[in-house]
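My current task is to audit a protein record that another person submitted. My question to you is simply how this chain folds and whether the tokens agree. This is what I was given:
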Amino acid sequence: MSRVGKSPIAIPKGVKVELNGKLVKVSGPKGNLQHTLPEEITLKQENDVVTLARVNEERKARALHGLTRALLNNMVHGVSAGFVRELEIIGVGYRAQMRGKDILNLYLGHSHPIDYFLPKGVTASVEPGKGNPKIKLESCDKQLIGEVAAQIRRLREPEPYKGKGVRYVGEYVKKKVGKAVVGSGK
């Protein structure tokens, strides 16, 4: 049996889980999320605990058991506490600023500034500092915030020679040695 799938999900105060057929709706102080359960998985709710079970022991059901439990646990955590993803911009002249509530304006060494439109459900803030500016993304949906962070990072990935670009806070970029100048060779 799946170790992840058989562990129960504790529902914190202020979070409401509703099951309507195969549609699970989770609502809390940070937002509302929903997920459709696969046919192979059943959900059982008792008081403040949700457990998942498999209908049969087929390979697909075993694979979906732990996945579905992890997705529901992320939904419960997201609507109660939320998720945060931080990016930092490294490079001379590279900067970021917010234009309005949902447009992230980035200067990343291209010939033009890049306007990144944030999807609904994701908020961003820019922390300009003495060093590298940091972009802080917040959302109740873990999958959405991860995708947005990856898209922003993809606009200028860290290059291996100087380390310039957009990277996650705490990400290590292994640097390469540049070409060595040997001399005149005569």
User: Anything to note?
Assistant: The two ends are 72 Å apart (CA to CA).
